[in-house]
Amino acid sequence: MTGALIVGCLLLSGCISPQAPAFYLAGSYFPSWLIGTAVGIVLMIPIRWLLIRTGIDDALPLRLLFYTCVVLIIAMAFSYAFSPQ
How many beta carbons lie within 10 A of that of residue 38, not counting itself? Predict the structure, then answer.
């Protein structure tokens, strides 16, 4: 039992952070992934328009999965590039 407790504490010690990656907006702290997701959704609109205009959108077999992954990539890139830490 003691060994399991020690292993659990060691595994959870990586979760301790002095400050979470967050932005201060409108008097409150917002997580960077939340702002990155909003930026990803906004940037996805012109990307989708461009894909529709070029005809690539018609050739996509799983459109919802493709656009979700693109938003996720944009959100992760934003969080990585503009995180305050």
Answer: 14
To which residue do tokens 């909003």 refer? 38
Please give the helix or strand (H or E) that residue 22 lies within, else none.
Answer: strand 22-25
Quick one: average pLDDT of 60-85? Answer: 87
Contact criterion met (CB below 8 Å) for 67 and 48: yes
- Residues 14-62: tens digit of each pLDDT: 555 566 666 777 777 777 778 888 999 999 999 999 999 999 999 999 9
Q: What are phi and psi of 18, to 5 degrees?
A: -65, -30
Domain residue spans of the chain: 19-82
The SS3 call for residue 84 is: coil
Helices 63-82, 32-54: axis angle to 10 degrees equals 130
**Is 0.70 topped by the overall pTM?**
no
